[in-house]
Amino acid sequence: MIGAGHAGCEAAHASARLGAKTALVTINLDLVGQMSCNPAIGGVAKGHMVREIDALGGVMGIVADRTGIQFRLLNRSRGPAVQSPRCQSDRAQYRVEMRSILEKTPGLSLQQAEVVELLIENGRVSGVELVDSRRLSARALVLTTGTFLNGLVHIGDHTFAAGRSGEMPAIRLAESVRRIGFRMGRLKTGTPPRLDARTIDFSQMERQYGDDPPVPFSFLTKRIEQPQIWCHIAYTNQQVHDSIRGNLDRSPLYSGKIEGTGPRYCPSIEDKVVKFPQKERHQLFLEPEGYDTYETYINGLSTSLPVDAQQAMLERIPGLEQVKMLRPGYAIEYDFVDPTELRANLETKRVAGLFHAGQINGTSGYEEAAGQGLVAGVNAAMHALGRESWVFTRDQGYVGVMIDDLVSRGAEEPYRMFTSRSEARLTLRMDTADRRLTETGRRLGLVQEDRFQAFRSRSAKVAAIVQAIEGVRVSVGSAVADRLADAGIGITGTTQVSALLKRPEFHVEHLRFVLPANAVEGVTDEELGVVLNDEKYAGYVSSQVEASKRAHAARKRVIPGDFDFASVSGLSAEQIEKLTLRRPETLSQAEAVSGMTPAAVNLLAVYLELGARRAARG
Amino acid sequence: MQSEMFEDTIVAVATPPGRGGIAIVRLSGRNALDIALACVPAGSRLGETPNRAVITDLVNPDLAGEILDRAVVTWFRAPKSYTGEDIVEFSVHGAPVVVDAALGVLLSLGARPATPGEFTLRAFLNGRIDLTQAEAVRDLVNAQTGHQARLAQRQLRGELSHRLQPLKERLLSLIVQLESTVEFVEDDLETESRAALVKELVSAAADLDALTASYRLGRLVADGFGVALVGRPNAGKSSLFNRLVRTERAIVTAMPGTTRDLVSEPVELEGIPVRLVDTAGLREAENEVEQIGVGRTRTAIVDADVVLVVIDGSLDSSDTVRALLDETRHATRVVALNKSDLGDPDPSLVEAIEDSGVSPVSVSALSGEGVDEVRQAVVRAIGGSADLAPSGVLVTNARHHELLTRASKGMTAASVALSAGYSEEIALVGLHESLQSLGELTGETVIEDILGRIFATFCVGK
Ligand SMILES: Cc1cc2nc3c(=O)[nH]c(=O)nc-3n(C[C@H](O)[C@H](O)[C@H](O)COP(=O)(O)OP(=O)(O)OC[C@H]3O[C@@H](n4cnc5c(N)ncnc54)[C@H](O)[C@@H]3O)c2cc1C
Ligand SMILES: Nc1nc2c(ncn2[C@@H]2O[C@H](COP(=O)(O)OP(=O)(O)OP(=O)(O)O)[C@@H](O)[C@H]2O)c(=O)[nH]1
Ligand SMILES: [Mg+2]
């Protein structure tokens, strides 16, 4: 495993758990699991992925639960499918906790070194060369180098090579990767300045509290014990915007110095001010970086302006008149490898045994990286152990959606997960990640006994509630009906409880008094919620499930890796060229290639079938 | 054994479009028999023996079993069928109205319109036909492409897609509003109120419905309306026919019984495509040839969308007129009182016509006077030029109709969900379904496009 970022940590842990002898090699062992940007885990769709990683036996959820300093469940007022946990983390503790879990993982060894060369023999990996010329041999490699490949930091017109601010870049390794012949591109991202809390006047800002009690990420976490802090909300104003506009010519974003494509969902403050000139103010969150530090993260103010311009804009924000900047914000450009170079198991098509995961695949975000890391780690281990590879499918969760999107469509800008990327959003709830994945994790060898037992007991309790609801009725005039009426849930005559569950006003607390006391005893709100949520979505889900089943069946029509598109007479030269370049693995992926007509897809289907029959005849 | 390859059941008219005597509607897929059984009365022998034709009523289960047609239905059991799947073939009467209704029922029962060449493709993929030679395969696909192109050209002409574009835009902006609130909870977005969204949804759905409602009309327009000229011999039908088609297409003589067979000619009346049919005059037939001719006239009356009754104002008696009007009583009619150049007709004649609820149009096929009025009366009878194509676009194709219906259903479901206080992601199920349906007509909108719009509309992200 090359790189101990969020992808690398998850990959190394998974690989070792599967029983493969695993080494995690990284540039700096003090920075294992370092959060490059915002010290926060989760968010809509991202929190879902953390739950999926956790349900499979991954580590991110547990580390986040142990080191979170403020938890909030997002979209609380909306439906269960779009609710998602998020937490602010203690950046330093997160690193420590992650490293400690990895150190305790049997079969995993951590090593500090810079990898400079991927060793390949006859199209398969054989190991790596380190900067001090040592060689490590390996049957499988997972490359998770984040923003480090040819990383270039911009602050105003000042640029310097770095993997992240203050860390060395990976230049020789980038060259080694390029030599393999991968299609590569350049992306860009940025981060805001960090401030000294002692120089901030919080009295001019709104306080933002976390949830009480906090909702954890991990299915194994019973309660979040550590004390919770609060954040603050501040706003920019016209003076701030004027100051930014006055310095735009010194921003590398606008002077044309930065070539890489940045994420549109994570715009710099320069972009916000330029693209939305009518907006009078932009919201900012001031988030403590941890319990033991005054360092404060200012969320919403990502910038690559020169340091003096950053200071000038900060001072115009109410509450920050006296602020002292600890670190400036910056933008970073880096190389990534076109993810259509990968198979669905995240192995590269060009080199057997070489896997890519994380930001190197054009994604952005810790959770996205961790999800890929887990899949790549499992498959690298499978490869090394001679076992069959595993594909995380779209219908199993957001991690599957992400990987399928990446390997079939590529990444034009840094890819971030959104719930709308799934065609079956209602089926991918955070409270059902275990139901979707824990048995798979068990089969893979990732899920250990304690987690599996917890899963079983939870499933049994949920099943018991489903049974308990069956046949229970409520009649007008009964005490239960009166309590329901108080909650705005009116009924007429006698009603099946199962019918009431669908009402938008019906919540878990109502289930508690509608059902007999012995049925709900010892059942948590979350477990009751699973039943309730299933019921609320039942009608809508069935149509979505139908559609996704159909999509899945179609996806099963696989295109062999050595398929010669040029042999398909009837395809246009342009279609052949694009297909050969993209190397789709399935018919549906082929369909997504630009310029493919339905007739061309049918034609491909015909040839694939011909090939399969020929193969069957021997 | 059913093929595992395909989940869905497809349907299409297997005979060439047009007004042949019989049309074959073919259903193929794992649910073919179930779907077929749902639209024949219980107790029919369908499904008992494969390959045996059964004569049965075809009913619409939605409309309390309204009978659509008497059809010959044959079930071919998988894998011994053309496609290798269960197939049910319905031989129905070829009139477009009947074929459409049959298709509509099968679609509503869960079948999906087949894409061009899909039956052959399934046949091949299920191993029923063996195409080992690449050349043959290419021919197959080229044939599909050609067919597709023709189909697209004829039925879509880009107009529908063009007309749908603004609707799709409205739908997209609704989706963008709702998706942003779901995906970017932490941003302070200035989104529309729920009430405003519901209002916009209802109005967009209504626009879509108006378009969908043009389907029947559109279908007729695409094939051309049938207008038959019917009357006693020598009334001047052929003369009027020639006036309307503006050529001497039909033979005119002073001898009664000149026209013996149907003469049909396409023509545009005020921009509406019409197939004008001249017929043999109605009278007691004197010989076999004439008998056949009169029989055909009667068929033409049934088939026609509008019957143009031609009366000889100088000669016909009110009794003959009554008999004629009785014979055509089920049709939409225009009555032309011909030979106005010979003087005013007997008032008893006019009275007889007005008794039947129509006022006659006075015309002289000889001089041409009143021909424009006849033309306008026919157009009015077809549907009234005013409500023909209110938007300039008519839906003419069953697949399009189905997609539009689905799109509208999705919007309605979403507005119901929103106004009942359901959460955004539920309303979005309907909206995305709607978008997907419109997308099949106008080009797909992928999620990247939607995200792109979100980023362009709102300042989101930190
Ligand atoms: C300035 C900045 C701003 C960002 N802003 C955002 C944001 O706003 N939103 C967002 O979602 N995400 C943001 N990110 C991205 C997020 O941090 C990454 O997506 C995530 O950390 C990627 O995880 P990873 O495991 O792929 O790589 P990283 O976390 O970057 O880890 C890479 C690891 O590889 C190691 N490594 C690299 N080269 C070598 C080598 N040759 N030999 C050995 N080890 C090596 C490094 O030491 C490091 O441990 C930002 C990143 C940066 C740097
Ligand atoms: N004066 C006068 N004669 C007409 C008019 N229309 C038709 N005729 C004459 O009536 C005779 C019959 O005309 P056709 O058009 O052949 O009549 P038809 O109804 O087609 O007759 P069949 O085909 O025999 O049924 C011809 O001699 C025409 O010239 C008219 O408006 N005025
Ligand atoms: Mg005639």
What do we call the CATH homologous superfamily of the largest domain in chain B? P-loop containing nucleotide triphosphate hydrolases
Instruction: State the shape of chain A.
Output: globular
Bound molecules: flavin-adenine dinucleotide, guanosine-5'-triphosphate, magnesium ion
Low-pLDDT segments, ≥5 res of chain B: 131-158, 384-392
Number of domains of chain B: 3
Q: What fraction, in percent, of the residue positions of chain A are helical?
A: 25-40%
| Share of β-strand residues of chain B | 15-25%
Q: Tell me the major beta sheet of chain B.
A: 6 strands, mixed
Q: Roughly what is the average pLDDT of chain A, rounded to an integer? A: 92
CATH topology of the largest domain in chain B: Rossmann fold
Main-sheet strand order of chain A equals: 14-15-16-17-13-18
Global outline of chain B: globular
Helix and strand arrangement:
The complex is a heterodimer of chains A (618) and B (462).
Chain A: H1 6-17, E1 22-26, E2 40-42, H2 46-55, H3 60-67, E3 68-74, E4 84-89, H4 91-103, E5 108-112, E6 115-121, E7 124-130, E8 135-137, E9 141-143, E10 152-155, E11 158-161, H5 171-180, E12 184-191, E13 194-196, E14 206-208, E15 231-235, H6 238-246, H7 269-275, E16 283-288, E17 295-299, H8 307-315, E18 325-327, E19 330-337, E20 354-356, H9 366-385, H10 398-409, H11 433-444, H12 449-469, E21 473-475, H13 479-486, E22 494-496, H14 497-500, H15 508-514, H16 517-520, H17 525-555, H18 573-582, H19 587-592, H20 598-617
Parallel strand pairs in A: 1-5, 9-20
Antiparallel strand pairs in A: 2-4, 3-4, 6-7, 7-8, 10-11, 10-19, 12-19, 13-17, 13-18, 14-15, 15-16, 16-17, 21-22
Helix pairs in contact in A: 1-9, 2-9, 2-11, 3-4, 6-8, 11-12, 12-17, 15-17
Chain B: E1 10-13, E2 22-28, H1 32-38, E3 53-60, E4 66-76, E5 87-93, H2 96-108, E6 112-113, H3 118-125, H4 134-156, H5 159-183, H6 194-213, H7 215-223, E7 225-231, H8 237-245, E8 263-269, E9 272-278, H9 288-303, E10 306-312, H10 318-327, E11 333-338, H11 347-355, E12 361-362, H12 371-382, H13 398-419, H14 424-442, H15 447-457
Parallel strand pairs in B: 1-6, 7-9, 7-10, 10-11, 11-12
Antiparallel strand pairs in B: 1-2, 2-5, 3-4, 4-5, 8-9
Helix pairs in contact in B: 5-6, 5-14, 5-15, 6-13, 10-11, 13-14
The structure holds flavin-adenine dinucleotide (FAD), guanosine-5'-triphosphate (GTP) and magnesium ion (MG).
The site of guanosine-5'-triphosphate has 23 residues of chain B, from α8.
